[in-house]
TrEMBL record:
Source taxon at top rank: Bacteria
The name this protein goes by in its record: Arabinan endo-1,5-alpha-L-arabinosidase
One example GO MF annotation: hydrolase activity, hydrolyzing O-glycosyl compounds
PANTHER family referenced in this protein's UniProt entry, alphabetically: ENDO-1,4-BETA-XYLANASE, PUTATIVE (AFU_ORTHOLOGUE AFUA_2G04480)-RELATED
SUPFAM superfamilies assigned to the protein according to its UniProt record, in alphabetical order: Arabinanase/levansucrase/invertase
């Protein structure tokens, strides 16, 4: 090997060993993430794992006219977070002008697809709805995939916002979405340019559970489908998260109860969440936004994390929201 290449190789190996030793030291010291997880007003966090790193994609929480971009955050251990600024900017999505909300992301065949709501449309005549952008990397830059929204109308009364994309065991991708107290499910087509109608010919099926307001989320555990959503008003103190368990992604979803809500000693308005699972440690985390105690500005929302645990019967135990957050939890050795 030429001398210069072998020097670079030795240096890179040394830096990698040093970085993972540092990560282990952090884990041993009993450090915690703290809450909020990172600085700034952010909401609706989508937590996800890509290639050995945790990622969080939140809404930038500000006046609607100022919500014209997304930042993302990534971490190897849940404690130290790196900011990736402006991974999507409305300057590259010609139909999105404001209120860019609630990102949801999936990786498919090496590409990253970022779904989002834009413009907060109030009726079928307004321009906007749910869009999708694509990038070769989780940190973007993301570019509009279609040049137009994927859903730009109200179906079954659901405002086209707050989409979550779920990959089922059989490889099918479903979108759950909807504001204004209605939730629909639709099956995405292969290249995420549209939807595949269900056997009965319908494209958008309403699956709204009791109490549902917005912010749907789904995960599978032990073969069961856990469907979760936000209840209450997002600007108020009683915003919260409830859930159901079903045998299929289509439901039926019978509400079991709330598992995340305000704590008068800690924060108000805890809701619009996501869930990440570390397969190595088998720990489950809920990532959500909440409002500092005494704060009345609806936009002052911050992203937090706490551990989510299950009872022996598979039910989710009520989450204790904390200032401390979680311990380091590396995804790989
Ligand atoms: O952040 C904008 C909106 O607030 C979201 O779309 C809703 O779910 C609520 O969290």
């Amino acid at each position: 090997m030429p001398k210069r290449i072998s020097t670079v190789f030795i240096l890179v190996s040394f830096l990698c060993c040093y970085a993972s030793a540092q990560e282990r030291k952090t884990a041993e010291k009993g450090v915690r993430s703290g809450n909020p997880l990172f600085q700034g007003w952010y909401a609706d966090p989508e937590g996800v794992v890509f290639k050995g790193r945790y990622w969080i994609y939140p809404t930038y929480s500000a006046k609607y006219e100022e919500q014209v971009f997304f930042d993302a955050f990534s971490s190897s251990d849940l404690v130290t977070w790196k900011k990736h600024p402006r991974i999507l900017d409305t300057s590259s999505v010609k139909w999105a002008k404001r209120a860019v909300w609630a990102p949801a992301i999936v990786e498919k065949k090496g590409k990253y697809y970022l779904f989002f709501g834009a413009n907060d449309i109030q009726n079928d005549q307004e321009k906007g709805g749910i869009g999708v952008a694509v990038s070769a990397k989780p940190e973007g830059p993301f570019k509009d995939h279609l040049g137009k929204p994927l859903i730009d109308k109200f179906h079954n009364g659901a405002q086209p916002i707050d989409q979550f994309v779920f990959k089922d065991k059989d490889g099918k991708y479903y979108m759950f979405y909807g504001g204004w107290r209605h939730c629909n499910i639709a099956q995405l087509n292969d290249d995420f340019t549209g939807f595949v109608p269900f056997a009965d010919g319908k494209t958008f099926k309403e699956i709204t559970p009791e109490g549902y307001v917005e912010g749907p989320f789904m995960f599978i555990k032990n073969g069961k489908y856990y469907f979760m959503w936000s209840e209450g008003g997002w600007t108020g103190p009683d915003y919260s998260v409830a859930y159901a368990i079903a045998d299929s992604p289509m439901g039926p979803f019978k509400r079991i109860g709330k598992i995340l809500q305000q704590d008068p000693q800690v924060a108000t308005g805890a809701g619009h969440h996501s869930v990440v699972h570390n397969e190595k440690s088998d720990k489950w985390y809920i990532i959500y936004h909440r409002r500092p105690l005494g704060e009345t500005n609806g936009n002052h929302r911050v992203v937090c994390i706490d551990e989510m645990q299950f009872g022996d019967d598979g039910k989710i135990l009520p989450v204790k929201i904390t200032f401390e957050g979680v311990k380091p939890d590396l995804l790989k050795k």
